[in-house]
Design goal:
Layout: E1 5-8, E2 12-18, H1 22-27, E3 43-48, E4 54-63, E5 66-72, H2 76-85, E6 93-96, E7 100-106, H3 110-113, E8 123-126, E9 129-133, E10 142-147, H4 151-157, E11 161-162, H5 165-175, H6 212-220, E12 226-234, E13 243-246, E14 249-258, E15 261-267, H7 268-277, E16 281-283, E17 286-290
Parallel strand pairs: 1-11
Antiparallel strand pairs: 1-7, 2-5, 2-6, 3-4, 4-5, 7-10, 8-9, 9-10, 12-15, 12-17, 13-14, 13-16, 14-15, 16-17
């Protein structure tokens, strides 16, 4: 059991999408159903290349007549630029909101401290901002988009203890949740190799979106041969991109990690062979032990 905590995610930023066409504008671009976003529901979604490769993923929450996009700070300007390319005659505005901060609330009962029920994506207004259960997985806790100068006070007043980004990262890695371009390679990664189907990041009934054709073909033809998986790391932490080996054969690549745990994109046949033969998966000088997340369907 872990106490409910919060941390401000300095690695995240907020884009504000407003205007009467905001739903239709985003609906044709991203992988989940924007029409379902409301003051009581947030979503997690992805923006792909026309060839179905990953560009960005982000959370969308509603605040009044606008959408707040919780995205990577280092790549927020790129996301804004790419979205703006498709704006054309749509009546929408896209603005960076430097006055807003993103926080993660995690640990036992963290979402309940913010007045949220246990359903993934459940949202509510909170202190001139919005809080929502992580739309990917309720076990990941909640997120909040709040005025930056008040965020710490609001979350502390809700009964959450101050934690660290490292605390949150360990929770995320243990659950097998990717963190943007730390774990997915822009213009290369495929959503279904990284759990987006099971983690509510793709809606197969919403209609067309950018990159849908390859994503759907991969899904319906069962072409997923690799998966992002949590790994226990015995030895020095391998750098992201380090090859994972099964003997002399390539078995995958390391992604993010910390304190003996991490994520790796692994060939499923290699994972199976390693389990059957009790052989070691290695990355640099470290030995990796993969674990299938409880939510995963592979």
């Amino acid at each position: 059991m872990s106490e409910p905590r919060f941390t401000i995610l300095e690695s995240r930023a907020v884009l504000d999408v407003a205007g009467e066409d905001r739903v239709a504008f985003l609906q044709g671009l991203v992988s989940t159903d924007v029409a379902t976003v409301s003051e009581t529901k947030a979503i997690h979604t992805a923006f792909l290349t026309a060839q179905g490769k990953y560009l960005h993923d982000f959370f969308i929450a509603a605040l009044g007549e606008r959408f707040l996009l919780d995205c990577e700070a280092a790549r927020a300007e790129d996301l804004k630029k790419r979205l703006s390319m498709y704006r054309l005659r749509s009546k929408v505005t896209i603005e960076a909101r430097s006055d807003l901060a993103v926080a993660a609330a995690f640990g036992d009962g963290a979402a309940e401290k913010l007045g949220l029920d246990g359903d993934a994506g459940a949202a509510r207004a909170l202190a001139d901002g919005v809080a929502f259960v992580d739309p990917r997985l309720a076990a990941a806790g909640a997120r909040a988009i709040l005025p930056g100068d008040a965020a710490d006070a609001v979350l502390s007043a809700a009964g959450l203890a101050a934690g660290s980004v490292g605390d949150y990262d360990r929770e995320r890695l243990t659950l097998g949740l990717p963190d943007g371009s730390r774990d997915l390679v822009p213009e290369k990664s495929i959503l279904l190799e990284n759990g987006f189907d099971e983690l509510n990041g793709v809606d197969w009934d919403k209609g067309c979106f950018l990159g849908q054709e390859l994503t759907a073909r991969t899904h319906y033809r069962g072409l997923v041969k690799k998966r992002l998986m949590p790994v226990k790391i015995d030895g020095p932490l391998p750098a992201p991109g380090t090859l994972v080996m099964l003997g002399e054969k390539k078995a995958g690549e390391m992604r993010s990690g910390t304190d003996g745990c991490g994520l790796a994109l692994l060939r499923l046949d290699a994972v199976e062979k390693a389990a059957e033969s009790d052989a070691a998966l290695t990355a640099g000088e470290a030995r990796l032990t993969p674990k299938k997340p409880d939510w995963a369907a592979f």
